[in-house]
Design goal:
The protein is an alpha+beta fold and 501 residues long. The protein folds into two domains: 145 residues, Nucleic acid-binding proteins (OB fold (Dihydrolipoamide Acetyltransferase, E2P)), CATH 2.40.50.140; 259 residues, Bira Bifunctional Protein, Domain 2 (BirA Bifunctional Protein, domain 2), CATH 3.30.930.10. The chain is 36% helix and 26% strand. It has 16 helices and 20 strands. The strands form five sheets. An eight-stranded mixed beta sheet has the order 6-10-11-20-19-18-15-14, with helices on both faces. A five-stranded mixed barrel has the order 1-2-3-5-4. The protein has a three-stranded antiparallel beta sheet with strand order 7-9-8, with no helix packed on it. Strand 2 and strand 3 form a beta hairpin. Helix 12 packs parallel to helix 13 and helix 14 packs antiparallel against helix 15. The chain is elongated and about 90 Å long. The two termini are 29 Å apart.
Length: 501
């Protein structure tokens, strides 16, 4: 009972504090000092710039702006701490410097208010670089209360729903998203330097192909047609290779109607690129060089640490076939398994679950997922996948049961998927036909035939290497983030009020 009373009392206190903030705003508005009427404030420096260049800026006038995160009022002089994009800086606010009326108003400012300060750079007696305020302006009134300073914002559900508050209270979160932006810029710089063109292709499509995934569906009223959100970037980018663009890439959102977990969000950022006149070996070289470039540029090192495990991007990446990986980690040699029946018998013996429709290649893939993936911590290319799970890939000339495909693994995660792209329209039609049969058998992730894509292949596509990168997972590794939601500014969440339904 006492706890309930205490909770009710706290709620009443919060309501009173919120009421006071609105009363302060009303008072300012009545006095013709409405902060929301201010349209601009000229900022000369960010906090960290002042600290980094103190020797040159000492005694000079600067203007800073940001959110007031703390305030100590001590009679005729006070201190406050202002947080901006680059960090935070202390300001010394004295009545004799800013004027009696301005100082009186400053004392009523609340934590969370956004302020602009003009003043001279100096160092306090305790050695802290600060701004001695000559003018202080309230630029925006905060009508809510920030989380308690020393505990910050720790509830993960609230953090994801209110990312704006998370960014204010947790500096490491801001650092993560600054790094994410730099990672994307670095990728673009590298690919642009390799002669690739960045392009944009449709998100709303009639046929969502290019991956094994269940699409989101919607209805386009103007055309009275059903459309899907894309699950991949592949089929449109290949059309551009047919058109002669030779090297293209796209970084964009794709949508898959699947579950939520630490590595999956229904909308996520994918990068796909296609290069004419190369194969999956060319894609391995590109991947290795790209990862090294991004890590060195963004982190300043090719050695990254994720969850206390070091991964070295500076060393040559391991290359292993899927058959050899299964042989190494499961002790089963699929070179010795000739039929689907033998594969199913091996699966039963090893306790690998499969569906009746699965063929030998599907079961090899299941063995790989069950026994090998978790061991692939250091950068590893897993090559030569079975044809059954690779409907858009060229067969290996010397072994047509397998295709020229690799998946790139780090930390036991699939980070990229690449092919020597199938450019035979007759073979591609047969592969689509096989996918249609799977769809009829109830596989909701199977592809459907894309006649326009087949027409493009009949026009003629050169030998091409292609790859898809999971950008969010790359950001997770390079920022040491536990979950995909930690690298998505606004992850998908169940609507408030429906969480327990």
């Amino acid at each position: 009972m006492g706890e309930q009373k205490n909770g009710a009392a706290q709620e009443q206190d919060v309501k009173q504090l919120l009421k006071v903030r609105r009363e302060k705003l009303a008072d300012l508005q009545e006095r013709g000092m409405d902060p929301f009427r201010i349209t601009k404030f000229d900022v000369s420096h960010h906090s960290q710039e002042i600290k980094d260049d103190f020797e040159n800026l000492e005694g000079k006038t600067v203007t800073v702006a940001g959110r007031m995160m703390s305030k100590r009022v001590m009679g005729k002089a006070s201190f406050c701490n202002v947080q901006d994009l680059k960090g935070n800086i202390q300001s010394y606010v004295a009545r004799d410097s800013v004027g009696e009326d301005s100082y009186k108003d400053f004392k009523k400012f609340d934590i969370g208010d956004i302020v602009g300060i003009c003043g001279q750079v100096f160092r306090t007696k305790t050695g802290e670089i600060s701004v001695h305020a000559e003018e202080i302006t309230l630029l925006s009134k905060s009508l809510q209360i920030l989380p308690e300073k020393f505990h910050g914002l720790t509830n993960t559900d609230v953090r994801y729903r209110q990312r704006y508050t998370d960014l204010i209270m947790n500096s490491e979160v801001k650092d993560t998203f600054v790094k994410r932006s730099r990672i994307l810029s670095s990728i673009r710089r590298y690919l642009d330097g390799q002669g690739f063109l960045e392009v944009e292709t449709p998100m709303l499509v009639a046929n969502a192909g290019g991956a094994a995934a269940r699409p989101f569906e919607t209805h386009f009223n103007a055309l009275d047609e059903d459309f899907k959100l894309r699950i991949s970037l592949e089929l449109y980018l290949k059309r551009l290779i047919v058109g002669g663009l030779e090297r293209v890439y796209e970084i964009g959102r794709v949508f898959r109607n699947e579950g939520l977990d630490t590595r999956h969000n229904p909308e996520f950022t994918l990068m796909e690129l296609y290069q004419a006149y190369t194969d999956y070996h060319g894609m391995m070289d590109l991947t290795e060089n790209l990862y090294r470039h991004v890590a060195q540029e963004v982190l300043g090192t090719t050695k990254i640490v994720y969850n206390s495990v070091e991964m070295d991007l500076g060393k040559p990446f391991e290359r292993i076939t899927m058959v050899d990986a299964v042989k190494k980690y499961a002790g089963v040699d699929f070179n010795e398994i000739k039929t689907t029946e033998e594969a199913k018998a091996a699966a039963k013996e090893k306790g690998v679950e499969f569906e009746e429709r699965h063929k030998k290649g599907d079961i090899l893939s299941l063995f790989f997922e069950e026994f090998a993936e978790e061991h692939l911590i250091q950068p590893t290319f897993v090559m030569d996948h079975p044809i059954e799970i690779s409907p858009l890939t060229k067969k290996k000339p010397d072994n047509p049961d397998y295709v020229e495909r690799f998946e790139f693994f780090m930390n036991g995660w699939e980070m990229a998927n690449a092919y020597s792209e199938l450019n035979d329209p007759i073979d591609q039609r047969e592969r689509f036909k096989a996918q249609e049969e799977l769809l009829a058998q109830g596989d909701e992730e199977a592809n459907t035939t894309d006649e326009d894509f087949l027409n493009a292949l009949e026009i003629g596509m050169p030998p091409t290497g292609g790859i898809g990168f999971g950008i969010d997972r790359m950001c997770m590794l390079l920022t040491d983030s536990v979950a995909i939601r930690d690298v998505l500014l606004f992850p998908t969440m169940k609507t408030l009020g429906k969480e327990n339904q």
